[in-house]
Amino acid sequence: MIKKSSKTSNSNKNYSHLELVNLGKIFFKEKKFLDFRAKGIKGGFEAIKDINLKIEKNKFVSIIGPSGCGKSTLLNLIAGLQTPTAGKILIDGYSIKGPGPDRGVIFQNYALMPWLTTIQNIEFALNTVFPAKTKPDIKERARKYLSMVGLEKASNKFPKELSGGMKQRVAIARALSINPNMLLMDEPFGALDALTRSYLQDELLSIWRKNKVTVVLITHSIEEALLLSDKIVLMSSGPSATISEEISVDLERPRDRQKIEQDPNYLKIKLRLEKHLLRETRAVEEVS
Amino acid sequence: MNKAISTRLTFAVAILSLLIFIIIWQVIAQQGLLVKNFPGSFKTIGSLIWWVSDPFFDNGPNDLGIGTNLLISLRRVLIGYSLAVLVAIPLGVLMGMSKLAQSSLNPYVQLLKPVSPLAWLPVGLFVFRNSEITGIFVIFITSIWPTLINTAFGVASINPDYLRVSKSLGASKSITIRRVILPAIMPNILAGMRISMGTAWLVIVAAEMLLGTGIGYFIWNEWNNLSLENIFVAIIIIGFTGFILDQFFGFLQDKFDYSI
């Protein structure tokens, strides 16, 4: 549906869309002026280490792991919001230098600007990414993406007038409006009730089918990962979390949430995921 | 319906309490219960009507209409206050964003904030040799701190999600400041501006007693005339003006209330 911009044309076929090489992140405690307590603390907190992962173009990949395993840190690194302390991130073979509009980010708390209406929130993203575009162009494009998530009628409403699900749909429209090659989602449905969550999962699947983007989804829901993903990446418990397993989900698409649960393959993977998560969560809980 | 009755009732109670207050004041004054020659409410209301019915006469600096004096005070406050806001907001944003600016400017802010602005009056007179500019200068010093501190606090405590969105879109620093940080901290800025205006309005009365003309000087002048009822007139008018100014900022704050 959306024509890809020329920025992908120089991509070499030998490269994966996204490649993480020996990626690591250590958070150093920032020493504050006149803060004597910080003197004794050596080193820092190693959130993740030795992350190696390849993600192919237009695939849907979920990253799942026990809480506090550095999933969000990993996503922030890919988004360019934080810089890694080890290793590198390659997109189409090129090392990333920071955030960029080739990656759309969706946050758990929607992160809409409360002083802007829904359409203005999308226009803000468009104006920032495409400063050369004219006002009517921007307006039209914003409207198009708002109607893609079924919210054209709410275009002049403020975020506080919307439900959580509607807010996240606006955030999805905003992230996709800048025409990214990759969508990075940090537990996007974690704050929603079960029914709204199912609705938005279906919505996301249909949007993904039409728009053809690579999706990296952080989640702690096994069912969500199984329903949506081509590949599930399992992370070990933190600190110094790393990838412990990659599981391909070879379930036929489009997937129906009722039918899929009868599939023996689904149940097999689900059991495996549950075992892993339970083991890693136990490791977290029993240490602390 | 119910709401209409309750507003009408509130209004009636307010009027009634005002009437009772006026009567008690009159009785106390007439009986000389407080001190001799204390003006009663009737005399004060009479003066109020006299001053308000012809507010803008000008018979020289010691005999100005109360409206003229009020406008002189308001003009000083608005100029000094506006200059202070123009300085305080950018400086506050800078302090909120940069650790260097924060640590280099904060000692001065903390040291100067608790000083009564009137202490600056002789400094102003010495430097400017002009009472008008000195008045504006004193109001400037008065108004700067609350707006500055609130702005800096607003920037430092901004919801990090907004900044992350801006950063993830690759927004420049200038776009982030103008289109994300400034709108996000509008509630903080307005809260600071409201406090600044309240303090400026308090200080101008005291400053003008020493500087000449304006509503503060009017009070000082009427004290020299031993006309206490005219001082009460000024107090009523100062209170009413301060109330209107405060309500204006309350209205703006409601406009920029983002809370869900």
Q: What does it look like?
A:
- The complex is a heterodimer of chains A (about 290) and B (about 260).
- By secondary structure, chain A is α/β, with parallel strands linked by helices.
- Chain A has helices at about 70-80, 120-130, 135-150, 165-175, 195-210, 220-230, 265-285, and strands at about 20-30, 45-55, 60-65, 85-90, 95, 105, 180-185, 215-220, 230-235, 245-250.
- The N and C termini of chain A lie far apart (about 50 Å).
- The relative contact order of chain A is 0.17.
- Residues about 1-10 of chain A have low confidence and may be disordered.
- Chain B is mainly α and about 260 residues long.
- The model of chain B has no long low-confidence stretch (mean pLDDT about 95).
- Classes of the chains: A alpha/beta (about 290), B mainly alpha (about 260).
- The interface between A and B is medium-sized, with 25 and 22 residues.
List keywords for this structure.
heterodimer, A: 288 residues, alpha/beta, Rossmann fold, 2 domains, six-stranded mixed β-sheet, four-stranded antiparallel β-sheet, 7 helices, disordered N terminus, B: 260 residues, mainly alpha, 0% strand, AAA+_ATPase (chain A), nucleotide-binding (chain A)
Task: Briefly characterize the structure.
Chain A is α/β, with parallel strands linked by helices and 288 residues long. Chain A contains seven helices and ten strands. In chain A, α3 crosses α4.
N-end to C-end Cα span of chain A: 49 Å
**Gap between N and C termini of chain B:** 28 Å
Q: Can you tell me the overall shape of chain B?
A: globular
CATH topology of the largest domain in chain A: Rossmann fold
Sheet/helix structural class of chain B = mainly alpha
H/E element string of chain B? HHHHHHHHHHH
Summed up, the domain count of chain B is: 2
Report the strand count of chain B.
Answer: 0
CATH superfamily of the largest domain in chain A: P-loop containing nucleotide triphosphate hydrolases
Total domains of chain A? 2
Q: What would the CATH topology of the largest domain in chain B be?
A: MetI-like fold
GO molecular function (chain A): ATP binding; ATP hydrolysis activity; nitrate transmembrane transporter activity
GO biological process, one term (chain A): monoatomic ion transport
Membrane topology (chain A): Peripheral membrane protein
Domain ABC transporter (chain A): 18-262
